[in-house]
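Hi R.,

Here's the chain you asked about this morning:
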Amino acid sequence: MSEARPDPAVSGSAVPDPILIEVPETISTERLLLAAPRPGIGPALSVAVAESIGLLSPWMPWAQQVPSFEESEAVARRQQADFIARRDLCYQIYDRAPEGRRLLGGTGLHRMDWTVRRFEIGYWLRASAQGQGFMSEAVMALSHMAFEQLRARRVEIRMDEGNLASRAVAERCGFELEGILRCDSLSPQGEPRNTCVYARLGL
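And the predicted structure, written out as tokens:
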């Protein structure tokens, strides 16, 4: 009989080497597939960002200009390396519609503290996919994975106070506004901004 091995993410008081922690590479919902980054998605990623640059640029420092296919491919490969090393857990969001898989946007667990088991969710969605509940569906699935599989104690979502669409997603997904950090960062345009901090707690 083989000896059962404890999950290093939840057993004992010692902090495990994060690279040993099991993290699912795909998460499925009724309409979506969240998939870990992989080589070859650069062109699709570039097209999705290009379609949405006007909506993303006020909030996202990385979306100030349309990336080339090669630049987006480099981003995807760095994301894959970070995922493997458990430094940052990005997922691309795909539509599971019968007519074919289409890249809709991205989400992930960022600014992770494996000791506390604290994570921050980030997200973006291409313009043509907005208004259909996809982002809330993805965030709910990612939150469930964080609490159930990674045993998160705390999951946050942070955004510019003026980003009402992002705030609405957090609230629909059961995150509570804990506070607003005044002038704690600069917008992509270099202006001081306030940051809303939403959170959910695990057991």
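Confidence is low (pLDDT under 50) at residues 1-13.

Let me know if you need anything else.
M.
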